[in-house]
Fold these 2 entries.
Entry 1:
Amino acid sequence: MQNQEMLSKAIRYQKAASDNAFNIISVFQKNSEQMLKTTLDQYSWIPDKGKKDYLSWSQNYLKMTEKMKAYIDKSYEEAERLFVLPDKKVQPTMNVQEQKEAPVPQKKTPTPAEAPKQSSKSQPAGEAQEKAPK
């Protein structure tokens, strides 16, 4: 499997997971708001201004959750546009003529005349002893 296909699947998976999470949050928030309304109706000792404040907090939270979902959806659309493969099976490839290879530098091998002559002093001790006459 190609890296781009794996990335495409990962983005789609994360988008589905975030959509499910936001759906759960919005359902939870709507149920909480309904419970809050019921509770506030039962408590007559809370002033009407306080009840309105509680309900406005709940509504603002729901609005901000929807704005956050819209922002994240926009970000996923951008990520899909950049990274997700189109549904086409064939991917465009470069022609042989378009492919340009960098020239490989070739090392020049010194000829025996150009090679530096080594004296017996510069040779390691083991090599000097091997060449010594017996």
Entry 2:
Amino acid sequence: MIPAKNGNPIAIVPFPTQRSCSDIANDISDVRDELARRFQGYGESAQPLPLFGKFSRAGHVQQITNKQTNLRNLLNEFNISGCGGTPGVPGDAWHFATRQAPAITPSRPWVKYATIGAGVIIVGGTAILAPELLPLEFALVP
């Protein structure tokens, strides 16, 4: 402790230990990979999600923007720490850190085809009459 001018002691607080360049590069690579998965996953939902609320499309977009902020902070830490020549940082990390987040849009249909009613199937957005799916009393005569 170092005494202050007025006699009150001042605590000496050590600076946080600087992380190694390879640790920062690994974190950058991990966050970049996660962002790539999130961008791809937003367009390919395994199930339809609501636009807003818990487990929603808006929540996914918020997660993307949070990860982008984290990635930008890591990239800045990497640069400020003088790690410029360290291998392991993906060349497109800044692209993912600054890429525009997706618009909040409804989920695409996650089923390639679905039965809509008796004898009607939707395939790729086109309604197809499927007589074999009609009940017997409604069967079409060829």
